[in-house]
Amino acid sequence: MITLKENLTKLGYNGLLVSLPLTFKRIEYCTSLFEERVEEIIPTLDKNEKISLVGHSTGGLIIRHFLSKTKHTAKIDRSVLIATPNQGSQLATIAAKLSTTFTKVFKTLDSLHPNNIKKLNLKDISTVEVGAIAGNKSNLLLGKLLAEENDGRVQISSVNYYGLKDFIILPYGHKEIHHQFRTAELVDSFLRIGQFKR
């Protein structure tokens, strides 16, 4: 996310990165850490200032989970989710079938199972517009395990969900999409006008 932050800085944003333990902890735990960080930032804002949220992959799910439960939605402007498995990860389903030990150790992966995404009870908040960017360059070995069009890790159909204000597909893979300046330009467009400028 450092590259995305640098690209957004070039476009005039003052970004903050939130480091989360996205390997061995469940989404719920990571959301609580994220919420603590947001609650530190809110008192520093000017009266009419709002926060925009941008997340890649599981980070996007943490943003959605945070928005579903926070009391601070009035201070959140818009949000962009990049390559986020909003419907869950088919790779997590495959991993669970291969070895329950694997998903017990890598708890974030277990959190990405479609059944566990449903348990998060993610709600759409009408006051916060959300846009999503998916990639379709399946340039990773794991992408070959997925039946549908994907970015090497996440199927496009999983990124899209009912309730998004806008959705766009870029020709990038999962590990590169958030490093591209074009992605930063689209994030900028959505944060400013509520749609991806094509």
UniProtKB/TrEMBL annotation:
* Alphabetical list of InterPro entries matching this protein: AB_hydrolase_fold, PGAP1-ab_dom-like
Instruction: Quote any Pfam family the record assigns.
Output: PGAP1
Q: Does the keyword Acetylation apply?
A: no
Q: What is this protein called?
A: Alpha/beta hydrolase
Could you tell me one molecular function GO term of this UniProt entry?
hydrolase activity, acting on ester bonds
Q: Which UniProt keywords apply?
A: Hydrolase
The GPI inositol-deacylase PGAP1-like alpha/beta domain extends over 43-139
Question: Lipid metabolism among the record's keywords?
Answer: no
